[in-house]
Each structure stands twice: as structure tokens, then as C-alpha cells.
Amino acid sequence: DTGVSQDPRHKITKRGQNVTFRCDPISEHNRLYWYRQTLGQGPEFLTYFQNEAQLEKSRLLSDRFSAERPKGSFSTLEIQRTEQGDSAMYLCASSLARDAQRVLTNEQFFGPGTRLTVL
Amino acid sequence: EDKVVQSPLSLVVHEGDTVTLNCSYEVTNFRSLLWYKQEKKAPTFLFMLTSSGIEKKSGRLSSILDKKELFSILNITATQTGDSAIYLCAVEANSGGSNYKLTFGKGTLLTVNP
User: Fold this and answer.
1) Nearest CB partner across the interface for B88, out of A42, A45, A113
2) I need a surface site. Which of A17, A53, B4, B109 has the fewest CB within 10 A?
3) CA–CA separation, A95 vs B102, rounded Å?
């Protein structure tokens, strides 16, 4: 399977615990995005990387959230001191930007998501 | 703040009906509008629209963009039960430099009954 993969697919945790999710993008894609989706809502942008550089972070991303993409391939999203309001589907997507100035397409391919439940 | 509004939020039809889903937007530095279909898992890409008035078609699905009136429609003809899903509209905008991000609407939940 050469699509975007995410691990784990489901995570149940107790309030106050830390959790970490992993995303493996399509191999030749240089851009990687994290979104959060709650019931009845469309995905909300959290952050994105071009290669290993984190280029933008949403105001939704509190200081309990941190994301990394250390080698420009897979990415991790960590949530510290989880709260019940963090319960959501966390989606990762990747895309190919051919160069910094002329992005010909930004079709984003989504992974299956990690569903987080905070008790 | 960029905004994408979809209507209706939910729709129930019978197999064979034709449906039209709407998406209006207010964004700064618009680049493209995308439609996704989301069943139980992640969204899957349907169309990307960048130019006004040019219809994109894939089988029974088609979509068109109006950049003057800031909206797009997604049409599905001869609906089938397999079309039941959430249809998401997203607008890609330049947020500075070469940074682009997608803003999604809440989606339209389509249910096609046999």
C-alpha cells in the first residue's frame, strides 16, 4: 500500500496522559499536514510541514500540541496532558509541491486517521 | 478569517434522484476549491477547480466553480446507495509566501435510500 498511513488507528487514554501519533506520507510527497476532525465538522487545519520545516501552525494548536518531521519523511503529533476536548479524529495528509514558487497542484491525500478518545 | 459554508448540511434522497450540493466561500488569496467524499474513514479526493465556468466531470459526478459569486456546486446524477457519504468542500488559499492551506466546510451528509 503506497498511500498515507497513520498509527495507531484508535487510541483511548485517560485525561492527563500524553499521546503520540505517527503519520507516514506518500514517499515522494514533500508536504505533510495535520488536521483534527470532530463529529459534524469538516477537518480543521492544525499544522503543516514542507520537508522537515514546520511552516505554519494554527491558533487551534495549543502549547500542549507539538508536531515534528525530523527527517522530512514521517511525522509525529504529540498531545501532552490530554483533555476530554482533545477527543477527535486526527487526520494526516500529504501532497507534492514541485517547487516553492510554482505549486502546480496541492491535491492532498489523506490517511485513515487516528481516532482519539480521552476518558 | 477564511470561511467555507456548505448547504444543505444533510440530504436524504432515493436512488436515481439527482442532487446538487452547494459550497460558498470567503477567503483571502484564493487558489483552488476541492471536493472530497468521506465515508467512514479519511476524505478521498474528487475534484480540484481553479477556473470559473469550466465543468469537471467524473462519471455521474460533476462540479463547477464561479469565482465571481464565490461558490461551487457538486452534482450527482442517478444517485446510488454507494454515493451515501459526507461531501466536503475545501478551499485552498495562500497564507503567505509559498504557504497554502485548506479550509474545509462542515460537509453535506448525503443519504441515498434504495
Assistant:
1) A42
2) A53
3) 12
